[in-house]
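Please, structure for the following, as tokens.
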Amino acid sequence: MGSPGVATAAGTAVLVYLVLSGRLCGDGAGADGGRGAMEVEMISSAVSTAAAARERRKEEARARRRARRGRRWPERAPQGWGEAVVEAAKTVRFAYGETLGKWSLGELAFGINYYMRQQVRAPCR
């Protein structure tokens, strides 16, 4: 299990503990719900650890996005057919992602149908 899975499991365990301990407390509990200082400190420590893990994951995602944006096309021509095929695949993947990859299949079909009708209605010259 990766670190996101461990953090999720730990957070779930803390939430389950809080829910169960809240239901098991009697009505005569004090202002802090009948919890001792050690229990309150443990809960706040778990919450701060989860918040730090979430912030670390956000920073890692930002760094990946910055690295992805910083990639440049190669400054030289491909040395062989293999490199040429790889560069062509990258180009097609980028072009698809920037054009057709942004719309769903239903939207594409609607747009193609609309423009086909527009061409039929246009007068021939």
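Helices lie at 3-24, 37-70, 81-98, 105-121. The CA atoms of residues 52 and 58 lie 10 Å apart.
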